[in-house]
Amino acid sequence: MSTFPLLRLPDAEVLQDPEILESYRFDESHLAGDLPLAVVKPKSREALRELVRLAKSERFGLVPRGAGTGKAGGCVPTTRVVVVDMSAWPGEIQVSNQNLTLTAPASAWLRDVKGTAEAANLFYPPDPNSWPLCAFGGSLATNAGGPNACKYGMTRHWVLAVDALMADGEIHSFGIGSVKANAGPSLTQMFIGSEGIFGMITGATVRLIPRPSECLTLLLPVAHFHDLLELPGRLCASGFLPATFEFFDSAVLAELRKSGPEEARRLPGQALAILEFDDRGCTSDAFVSSLTEALGPLSEHLQIAADARQRDQIWNLRRLTSAFLKERHPKKVSEDIVVPRTRLPDFFKGLATLNIPAVTYGHLGDGNLHVNLLGAGETEPAELERQVMDLFKLSIHLGGTLSGEHGIGLAKRQAFLALSDPGQIELLRALKHAWDPLGIFNPGKVI
Predict the structure, then answer these.
(1) What dihedral do alpha carbons 274, 280, 286, 292 form, nearest 10°?
(2) Are 204 and 440 a contacting pair, CB within 8 Å?
(3) What's CA 313's distance to the chain center, in Å?
């Protein structure tokens, strides 16, 4: 394709310098994509309208990109595509205290979305580990999760309406800015977690709730990792639903103590959980006493964060874990499988039986486990593929899935196609063809 059609795009910055394009081959996964034909930063509806027209006439694909923090290769370029960098897309974050809603463009930083809600004494819960660095649009396209999903669910639970660029070159609105909308099936939700294969999200309206007024943050060290595995289900059965329930297994703690920051080297226990509650009254003696009773013998070494500084120290360690492990093991592969709370003990028994060398941490409260194969770079590709597929099969066998929050993208596409119900794949492909008959939106991803 010649370069001149793109250079005539209205209201857009067009990048075609190979050195600049090189950085767009990657996200935070272990994948490297093809060099894109160009990168376009659109700034108006007219720019997107013309971009879609050119994609159809010149036969190239459009790959949406936010901040590039995804972990499944969702924004990694495939053959003959233009990357659509939405970072310059116009719009402002607007909050309605009366409607308990927030509207923002895809280009907004998620940290600003959360911060704007907080400034209005409201709360937008989705908090993926990359929330200070990721784009709002990317968090929608990947149905981002995070620690708060334990109590508040994934991004899709908060989305009321979506604006999206479709195959006709126009931006269409799906849904309304209200919690009740029952005029037919919800097309809005088709875009959340779709990774841009049906159309390109340009903005959205999400619901908010009043900001929790109390917060109880706890460190729960245990002598044996397996002592933690039945605790999420037991707490829920006892009437306690943590806002977050994070964990480190013994191997992750050993890595942190050996080479992590000074505060990590003082972490207690052979395994460790972080629990946080934000219920009204959760900081009262009565609540803590009831929780201690529910924890039973595990409460012996329970530690309570005394103030905001201690809470921040705890969460800083949790947030740096992924980057720390990647720095120590640059070729590691991290999977984000899910199993139901009640099957957590069975999962780790199965993992031991499979003899997959892995360390785990993550969101124990909702069964979303970050299983890290640290030696992936030294493992034969065929053996590594077998290990990952065995991990996925174990998760699915126990009633779970192969991805809790990272998505499918390129990284898990083959596994998703191999392990999913064929009827489900056929339906998804029919939807893709109906909405994007020429296949211009994020080709080669998911399905």
Answers:
(1) -20
(2) no
(3) 23
- The reply to whether 108 falls in a domain is yes
Q: In this structure, what are the phi and psi dihedrals at residue 185, rounded to the nearest 5 degrees?
A: -60, 150
Whether 40 contacts 27, CB under 8 Å? no
Structure tokens at 175: 């849904």
| SS3 at position 247 | strand
Q: Is residue 432 domain-resident?
A: no
3-state SS of 338-357 is: ECCHHHHHHHHHHHHHHCCC
DSSP bridge pairs for 163? 173, 203
Which stretches in the chain have pLDDT values below 50? Answer: 1
284: helix, strand or coil:
coil
pLDDT above 90: percentage of residues in the chain: 95
379 inside domain: yes
Rounded-to-integer distance, Cα 373 and Cα 119, Å: 40
Q: What is the pLDDT of residues 202-243, one digit of tens each?
A: 999 999 999 999 999 999 999 999 999 999 999 999 999 999
137 in the same domain as 161: yes
Overall pTM > 0.70: yes
pLDDT in tens, 38-81: 999 999 999 999 999 999 999 999 999 999 999 999 999 999 99
The CATH number that applies at residue 66 is: 3.30.43.10
Select from 275, 301, 277, 297 the least CA-distant residue to 287: 277
Quick check: 273 and 265 in contact, CB under 8 A? Answer: no
